[in-house]
Amino acid sequence: MAQRVIDYWFTTGSTHNYLTAMRLPDVAAATGVAFRWRPFDLRTLFDERGYFPFPKGSPKTAYMFRDIERRAAARGIPIALPVPYPLPDSMTANLVALLGIREGWGIDYIRAAYRRWFQEGQPAGTDPNLSASLAEIGQDRERVLSLATAAANRDALTAETDVARSIGLVGSPSFVVDGEVFWGDDRLEDAVTWARHGTLACATPTRD
Amino acid sequence: MAQRVIDYWFTTGSTHNYLTAMRLPDVAAATGVAFRWRPFDLRTLFDERGYFPFPKGSPKTAYMFRDIERRAAARGIPIALPVPYPLPDSMTANLVALLGIREGWGIDYIRAAYRRWFQEGQPAGTDPNLSASLAEIGQDRERVLSLATAAANRDALTAETDVARSIGLVGSPSFVVDGEVFWGDDRLEDAVTWARHGTLACATPTRD
């Protein structure tokens, strides 16, 4: 048993993924489980299925943001709602994220971009967020954008999205371990448990 | 703080609600929190929003059933997949459930109907499930169906669905406490924590 690597699939336009991006390094350190960060383009899958789950003003969108707000508060993660949603250019955010993962600075970029989005109200993937996040982590904006938007990197993102489709991902973040998919920031603990024990352990709350 | 009653909103056509219906009495006993069982017609809200989340053969439907299967196994809840879905007549199941809640035998009916659906493959709300579940709990089929499908009970279900809409419910089961909505069987523990403490307590998993 004891597979110690979890594929962490996400799209940088995903709101709940703010929680995951902020807490994943701590979870990895606390549990000893490694995560492979894999950006993909969830919007492509939504478009293929003719479905966008969070239209502006819908009850589901309102619930989604309240849920994130509560969970951020419980975890001590700063958040300043409302934030712009959906992102005007999640594609660029994902392309930069993927390039960064391959070059080694992707996690820092993703976390910087999410902080600006959810704490300062700047949409990820466009300026001023894009320039400021890259500057913060010491990456040259022109070089990064040139490589990120080149055909090779676009093809790489498409290939990752193809994998995501083939394994049946339905949302972001998703954690995949041992062929099992766990969808949602709130399933991170389940994925960790599965990685360790090949099963879930669900505790029933007891009187306290 | 310490509100000790949680409104448990559900529709009897909901798959994840199988888990909740099976474990809720144990959770109530273990935690001292009371639950008010409130059936409503989620299908009406889906229809209004032009949206059905689980089309046959979709990745989301496949994920949903695998998720339920894993969680049932972890909790020791018997399950025999595949089961018929969606229900051909969830309306009747909800009407009977609501009548039963008001007459005092609803919880027994709901659990009996779910067991036949998820353990024996009989859709809830139609025969043989309907007759057998009512017989099991000692209710007369003709009397129950006559009252359940009468205008007064239909109006009562519509009124509950109106409340569900007005508080922004987006799925089943949903737990409402103190004006806060927690959607999903996997949020039951959060609702219990909120009922006790007015906040969430999210543990980070630690190395074991």
Automatic annotation (TrEMBL), chains A, B:
Its EC number is 5.99.1.4. It catalyses: 2-hydroxychromene-2-carboxylate = (3E)-4-(2-hydroxyphenyl)-2-oxobut-3-enoate. It is an enzyme of class 5 (isomerase). The keyword Acetylation does not apply. It holds the Pfam family DSBA. GO terms for molecular function: isomerase activity. InterPro entries: DSBA-like_thioredoxin_dom, GST_Kappa/NadH, HCCAis_GSTk, NahD-like, Thioredoxin-like_sf. The keyword Phosphoprotein does not apply. Keywords: Isomerase. Coiled coil: none annotated. Residues 5-190 form the DSBA-like thioredoxin domain. Belongs to the GST superfamily. NadH family. This is 2-hydroxychromene-2-carboxylate isomerase. It comes from Reyranella aquatilis. The lineage of its organism: Bacteria, Pseudomonadati, Pseudomonadota, Alphaproteobacteria, Hyphomicrobiales.
